Amino acid sequence: MRRILIDNARLRHGGQLDRVDCELFDLPIAAALKTSEKTVQRDWTFAGAWLSRELKKDEPAIMKIYHDRVSRREFLKTTSGATAAMAAGAFIAPLITRAVEAERPRGSRISYYCNGEIYVNEVGQPEGKPLTTGHWDFKPSWSKTGDMLVCFRRLQDDHDTLKWRTATFVINVDGTGFHALSDGTHTDFNPTWTRDGLNTPIWNRKNDKTGGFYVMQSKVGGKPGEEMRITEAAIHTWAHSCLMDGRIFVTSLHPELGWGGFLLTPKADGKPLYARVECELTAKGQLHRLSISPSEKKVCFEYLAGANFTETGHRLYIADFDAAKRAITNLKVIANAEAKAFWYAYPRWINGESAVIYHLNQTGKGELHLYNLADGSTRKVSTDFKADYRYPHGESAPC
Fold it and tell me: The domain at 110-394 falls in which architecture?
């Protein structure tokens, strides 16, 4: 555990950590790392979740150990069966800070756009205070660690969306910690997170010369100008969703492999490997805004028949997904089976993968709808009929 905490801190803080005493708690550690207490707690949250799996104990059980105020020695006796390296119980700190959330099922909240602002909320509840105000902020994606969103902000408007100028940013789900990752001089769209434990934000950047897109990445705490390209600028590639093994589901117009969906393996030289994903629909039309489920056994996505893109008329699907065989099978339409000319878009997994939430705009104002996999029912979950809802996203489930 000590080694994991140190390595995780090094990854976040550019390898500048020489030594950390895991017997210290939040404020001393924050000072040692020259970072915020919240960032340290975020690192420990990841370690704490790992520990709960190793011990085969759920988080409430671990939290009870804290609330019983056992001593450090007693706690180490409790955990000694996992590994002697799990020293000092430093991983308890983030669980303590989240004790007030213990009764709320993990994954039950959503983030979304409402009238240009970003909200975090329980499904079906009226809006509280927005995380962002005074700007036009879009498409929040929730980190797997559950504490951050990555979004983009429109800084230059145009009737042609592809002419927007935008900036990618990260913000904590409590509204603190805002920082931009790009400078707003590019067209940066649809950010998400890697699931490989590194919490790497990635997004799609327009190539103004070709009109296509390529994939960028940065880091939590990064600054504009530090982002780097991970796919070739000349090959149109659009990132959708990531796997825990580091691969990324993309759609691409590859010069040798043609058009389709691929699992992309990033490489240090910026020339990644593309491996085609088989799906019966790709020969007939276009897959858009695909999201891999938390178990990585299912996907949800939009489908538009034909080669010409329109924003309306998309069917929404769920399907089985086999990452090893690179196959999407057992497709099922969950919304807009008739392909009506309305804006059905952005299906995303929530509540684990028991439901899919999406937005629907039939009147000029978007609504949020929830599809339940168990019984096939759908219900509207947005509450203000005068507001414009878009881009819902499930808690701790990066798209």
Answer: 6 Propeller (2.120)
